[in-house]
Write a structure and sequence with these properties.
By secondary structure, this protein is of the alpha+beta class. It is built from 3 helices and 4 strands; from the N terminus they run H-E-H-E-E-H-E. The structure holds copper (II) ion. The site of copper (II) ion has 4 residues, from helix 2.
């Protein structure tokens, strides 16, 4: 009976994980220098290339970037560097959700 349960439980878990993204980290980054839609587009494009990054939302209004990543450990230094390389100034990075 115990053996049976040990086999069945992970299978059920995998099925559950297939529909919802449980293993994700969401961070919000303050970005200085965003002035127009072109800025938003180019920054978004650069951040999407990072490993594990699934979603990038850039708000011109609040000057914040929201990144959803499936990476085991989201590299905040890499995010900051990417923002710098795209021509902007990164501020604080806040972790909104970490399901790991
Ligand atoms: Cu611009």
């Amino acid at each position: 009976m115990w053996y049976f349960r040990k086999i069945r439980a992970p299978a059920a878990l995998i099925l559950a994980l297939g529909t919802v993204s449980v293993s994700a980290t969401t961070v919000e980054v303050d970005v200085e220098g965003l002035t127009c839609a072109f800025c938003v587009g180019s920054l978004q494009q650069q951040l999407r290339k990072l490993p594990g990054v699934e979603q990038v939302q850039v708000s011109l209004k609040t000057k914040k970037v929201r990144i959803v990543s499936s990476a085991e450990h989201l590299d905040t230094q890499l995010i900051k560097q990417t923002v710098v390389d795209a021509g902007f100034t990164p501020g604080a990075i806040k972790v909104l959700e970490d399901d790991h």
